[in-house]
Amino acid sequence: MDLLNNLALGFQTSLSLINLWYAFLGAMLGTLIGVLPGLGPIATIAMLLPSMYSLEPTSALIMLAGVFYGAQYGGSTTAILINVPGEASSVVTALDGYQMARRGRAGAALATAALSSFFAGTIGTLVVAAFAPPLTELAFEFGAPEYCALMFLGLIGAVVLASGSFIKALAMVVLGLLLGQINTDAITAVPRFSFDIPELTDGISFVVIAMGLFSFGEIIANLGKPPQHRDVMVKRVSGLMPTAQDVRESAPAAFRGTLLGCVLGVLPGAGPILASFSSYTIEKKLARHPEEFGKGAIQGVAAPEAANNAGAQTAFIPMLTLGIPTSAVMALMIGAMTLMGIQPGPQVMTSNPSLFWGLITSMWVGNLMLVILNLPLIGIWVKLLTVPYRFLFPAIMAFCAIGVYTLSNNTFDVYCAAAFAVIGFLFHKLGFEPAPLILGFILGPMMEENLRRTLLMARGDWSIFLSRPIAATMLALAVALVIAIALPAIRKKREEVFVEEE
Amino acid sequence: MKIRSQRDFVSGVLLVAVGAAFAIGATNYDFGSASRPGPGYFPFGLGTLLAVLGFTILYTSLTRNGNNGDPIGKVPWRPLLCIVGALVFFGFALPRLGFLISFPAMIVITSAGSREFAWRDALLNAVILTALSCGLFVYGLQLNIPLWPA
User: Fold this and answer.
1) N or C: which end of chain B has fewer CB within 10 A?
2) What is the pLDDT of residues A473-483, one digit of tens each?
3) Any CB–CB contact under 8 A between A449 and chain B?
4) Which residues have C-beta within 8 Å of that of residue A346, sequence separation ≥ 6?
5) Residue among A223, A430, A459 minimizing CB distance to B114
């Protein structure tokens, strides 16, 4: 059994003492930022990157992945306890989770969320392990036109599935692609848009952009709002063990949520978010007492939590097998790999098998750690929930500023980040979502290179995209997505889904 | 002509400007031909696309229904200036004054961005964060950060 051998190799790597430590560190840090207001996984990963040069790439990626799924976890804790979803994917958890907490069942809600997440994480890991090798094989068949079409599909998907205005999200992607053009042309070595500034000939670092837009821009926008006080209603959480009836009610929901999450997680854009929303809707339709939803139905916690966690795992599939990110976080993971000298793409599995399988299995290990650590430590997280923002934002600023500077020990990056802080604030004011920009920025150079190679190959004939079946299928899918969103019925549904998120 | 959405109007104008700037800038580079695209090919196309998207947003901002004007709202100058100022100050001061002076100063400037600013809290925060970062980044991770004035 190849799968078993591969998993064994993975566990050898992920269960080494050093990697266990980094998985733990990542998961804890992720939970922390999931619980704390105003700091998301994108900003955190960007903040951590500069200090990770010295780490072994496997350990570094294990830790970054831990931050990502740990944040999902912490996000649901705040959703249940104070009705503030820490991450977008736990918005639906708040609907019923918070109601359960108000009825004095916070313990059961937290335990259900944790256990369904863990179950989903386990299945998700297996799915990644099972589907990654065949997809990798397929990816080796891909030429420049296929890659180009795939990236196009990914970008369109990310735009369609993003919240807010479609055309604004599209504009963000294009702006991201354009910012990616500030570099030295890979084919002719001509520096572009550099205005004779030497630092710009290497391009702007994605860390600078991510930090400027997601950390500094957010801080400015948050400080502009009247101060919020977070009230924790539940001071002590007791009764962590779900009852037999809870298990009976939530297990099938968690199972269905997992399946849905596994499928939707692979999609570009807001995979996990979409998964949690749709699984909630499905459970509500299937339930014998749909009127219980919104009043503390345990299925309403189990299903979306399972779905978003499964989605968070399978979101790694396109990143690991094709080297193509489907979300801003995955784009940062790609960037991290490149920074550490690993060329992302299908060859990672064969050239770095221990990294590949170690990362996959570490997600399971990390999920297990989250369950074991979080439930008993819930008291600490409850305390952290109440840290006032005025102590928090200088700390975020401080770590980000050090991170930006140490990126290349250059103050130019700090000034750049300041500029992106202003841009990030502007985006916030004008109603632009910055995540598609990061995705476009990372994909930009890859896409340009593949497009130009395609055109060289086809001697300038664009119809090559239609004569190659795989590329044509992907383009057709992208067009179908755009048409679908233009249909009034679907557009209305999409608005409904994302309005709840606001 | 009436602006129905101030936010979209400004967005549109900015996108057209940025898109046009990139497209015009791209004409400085070799455009190549369709069969051999040069370094100007891709950015020119993208810049044009961005400008077109900007026009579309601009157009909808003038025609769309709704009369509240979708205002941009007040600009929170205090946090904006403090956060950006703190970063620029840090970038300028770090190589000259060293970490131990520029870092706590940056934190105090940052803290001043909040309406709940209080000297005692800000100074306390600055001391704690400086000690923590020094231990973690300078001694722990051995990052190359100048501590003292040059």
Assistant:
1) N
2) 889 988 888 88
3) no
4) A136, A139, A140, A142, A321, A322, A323
5) A223
